[in-house]
């Protein structure tokens, strides 16, 4: 059967606008959350705009890359997927040549104080592989041996390398996104249920076998049992959210960012949003992510081919899963884990690679079969 010819059109403006608003909110909140710490630290040159300047530079670079990616036909990625996979493995191994940070080796440090986190690349490379391979596999995807097992091996391999870096959170994101893409591709429900069981057992094993993860899990159940230790960060986050009320204390007026929440501009930035902008601000940010998910799914449904559909689903799922996990952690709905809030948390490589992926998603939105 001949595939419908794709037509080039305008990008999904609502999707584009949502992404840009999220980036803008992120830049403002990074400055607000980090200004006190940066101003009172010689490490950051006593410059309250230290993190704002760095995040602004990364945002400009990321938006530029997004615009370039939006102009390039996403089908050209097919022939380069194998190369991307090999390079990503090299980068994931390269982190072990650099010093650790709090016991984790997740970063490649570059001259000038910059760094990249290869796991941020890996989650999208896995999506590229899944989309290309599943399109070629066709109906054989319904066979567990040929249709699911190879993807579990490949995704598990990348997740395993990331797990060695002491990064269970991103490893989990990769496996969850893999399951979502497999489900969307038409795999049998009993196979998906079995895979969910396997991944769930692996996740439990990852927690039980690492004492510090087990402590985090126990503290999540009752953080007030150890308020100065493992439960400290969650308690401070809940205090920030609670003190914000409906309308918040006002932009820049957070008290919890004043050395109560460690590095408030990173993984726990949502709690600062709750404190300064209140419930209204939290709902606004959550609404932006819901709109993003809606437009991402719409783009997937309207894509010109299966490859575009699966690619859009995978990219949307990466952002959605990270946002859900981050907000769940900050609100005490799941154990504390290090997943940044996409587009909003401080982090240069995360922002740039997320925006490159958004460029690909926007390009898919330009090519529709109806």
From TrEMBL:
InterPro entries: FtsW, FtsW/RodA, SpoVE
Cellular localization per UniProt: Cell membrane
Major subcellular site: membrane
Membrane-traversing stretches: 12-31, 81-98, 143-162, 168-185, 192-209, 268-294, 306-331, 343-364
Topology in the lipid bilayer: Multi-pass membrane protein
Known catalytic reactions: [GlcNAc-(1->4)-Mur2Ac(oyl-L-Ala-gamma-D-Glu-L-Lys-D-Ala-D-Ala)](n)-di-trans,octa-cis-undecaprenyl diphosphate + beta-D-GlcNAc-(1->4)-Mur2Ac(oyl-L-Ala-gamma-D-Glu-L-Lys-D-Ala-D-Ala)-di-trans,octa-cis-undecaprenyl diphosphate = [GlcNAc-(1->4)-Mur2Ac(oyl-L-Ala-gamma-D-Glu-L-Lys-D-Ala-D-Ala)](n+1)-di-trans,octa-cis-undecaprenyl diphosphate + di-trans,octa-cis-undecaprenyl diphosphate + H(+)
Keyword Nuclease: no
Top-level EC class as recorded in UniProt: transferase
E.C. numbers: 2.4.99.28
UniProt pathway annotation: Cell wall biogenesis; peptidoglycan biosynthesis
UniProt keywords, alphabetically: Cell cycle, Cell division, Cell membrane, Cell shape, Cell wall biogenesis/degradation, Glycosyltransferase, Membrane, Peptidoglycan synthesis, Transferase, Transmembrane, Transmembrane helix
NCBIfam families noted in UniProt: ftsW, spoVE
Database matches in PANTHER family: CELL CYCLE PROTEIN, PEPTIDOGLYCAN GLYCOSYLTRANSFERASE FTSW-RELATED
Family classification: Belongs to the SEDS family. FtsW subfamily.
Function: Peptidoglycan polymerase that is essential for cell division.
Protein name stated in the entry: Probable peptidoglycan glycosyltransferase FtsW
Native organism: Clostridium ganghwense
């Amino acid at each position: 059967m001949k595939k419908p010819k794709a037509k080039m059109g305008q990008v999904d403006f609502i999707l584009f606008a949502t992404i840009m608003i999220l980036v803008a909110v992120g830049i403002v909140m990074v400055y607000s959350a980090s200004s006190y710490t940066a101003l009172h630290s010689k490490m950051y040159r006593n410059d309250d705009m230290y993190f704002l300047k760095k995040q602004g530079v990364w945002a400009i670079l990321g938006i530029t890359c997004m615009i370039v990616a939006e102009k390039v036909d996403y089908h050209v990625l097919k022939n380069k997927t194998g190369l991307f996979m090999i390079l990503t493995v090299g980068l994931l191994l390269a982190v072990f040549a650099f010093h650790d940070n709090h016991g984790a080796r997740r970063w490649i440090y570059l001259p000038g104080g910059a760094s990249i986190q290869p796991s941020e690349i890996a989650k999208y490379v896995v999506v590229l592989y899944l989309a290309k391979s599943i399109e070629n596999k066709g109906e054989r995807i319904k066979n567990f041996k040929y249709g699911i097992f190879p993807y579990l091996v490949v995704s598990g391999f990348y997740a395993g390398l990331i797990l060695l870096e002491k990064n269970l959170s991103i490893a989990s994101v990769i496996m969850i996104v893999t399951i979502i893409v497999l489900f969307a591709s038409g795999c049998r429900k009993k196979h998906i249920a079995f895979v969910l069981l396997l991944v769930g057992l692996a996740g439990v094993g990852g927690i039980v076998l690492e004492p510090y993860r087990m402590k985090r899990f126990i503290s999540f159940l009752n953080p007030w049992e150890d308020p100065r230790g493992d439960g400290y960060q969650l308690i401070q986050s809940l205090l920030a959210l609670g003190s914000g009320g409906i309308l918040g204390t006002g932009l820049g007026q957070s008290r919890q960012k004043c050395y109560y929440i460690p590095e408030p501009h990173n993984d726990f930035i949502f709690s600062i949003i709750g404190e300064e902008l209140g419930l209204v601000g939290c709902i606004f940010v959550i609404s932006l992510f819901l709109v993003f998910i809606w437009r991402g799914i719409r783009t997937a449904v309207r894509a010109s081919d299966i490859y575009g559909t699966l690619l859009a689903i995978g990219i949307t799922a990466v952002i959605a899963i990270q946002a859900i996990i981050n907000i769940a952690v900050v609100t005490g709905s799941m154990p504390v884990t290090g997943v940044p809030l996409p587009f909003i948390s401080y982090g240069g490589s995360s922002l740039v690679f997320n925006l490159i992926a958004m460029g690909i998603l926007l390009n898919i939105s330009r090519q529709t079969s109806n």
